[in-house]
Specification:
This protein is mostly helical and 160 residues long. 66% of the residues lie in helices and 2% in strands. The chain is built from six helices and two strands, in the order ααααααββ. The protein has a two-stranded antiparallel sheet with strand order 1-2. α1 crosses α4, α1 crosses α5 and α2 packs antiparallel against α3. The longest helix is centred in the N-terminal third of the chain and has 33 residues. It starts with 5 loop residues before the first helix and ends in a 5-residue tail after the last strand.
């Protein structure tokens, strides 16, 4: 992984930025959900300002996040839906994927980078095959039935 040269450095930078952005998006989403459940009034944009002013988290990425928080149409919207951040992620996505792919190929664990990439991918698709797989497994092992997109009702397959 290290012997790839200067291009790898650019890819690592892209992967780190993207993973951090997804991490902040997940965190803000959790804070928003908790605030809704508990009746708290939390200004997520102000939270970004406070974080940046602290002694531990002074990441420049927080400026991009504060702008994205302010542009959301609904407070429940993920910052990853922001057009500016989407452009940043689309630009960096190829390098991010190369880093994760190379690490996996060489048996190097990278749980934060690969997990954040999986999170990002899960947000980019309205439907993923994973849900169908889970339904099929539940039906196979426990006869729990499943729903289909092409027909109403519940279905059960007699698995062999």
């Amino acid at each position: 992984l290290i012997t790839a040269g200067p291009c790898l450095v650019d890819d690592l930078e892209a992967a780190l930025y993207s993973a951090k952005l997804c991490s902040y998006a997940q965190g803000l989403s959790l804070i928003h959900s908790a605030a809704q459940d508990k009746g708290w009034q939390i200004d997520l944009s102000e939270l970004g300002r406070i974080w940046k002013g602290g002694c531990i988290i002074r990441a420049a990425i927080l400026d991009d996040i504060r702008v994205a928080v302010g542009r959301r149409e609904q407070t429940s919207d993920s910052i990853l839906l922001d057009q500016g951040l989407q452009t940043e992620l689309l630009t960096r996505q190829p390098g991010w994927r190369r880093v994760v792919m190379r690490a996996v190929e060489q048996g190097i664990p990278c749980p934060a980078l690969s997990g954040s990439l999986a999170y990002y991918d899960s947000l980019r698709h309205a439907r993923l095959p994973g849900a169908a797989l889970v339904q099929a497994q539940r039906d196979f092992f426990g006869g729990h039935t499943y729903k289909r997109l092409d027909a109403p009702g519940s279905f059960h397959t007699h698995w062999q």
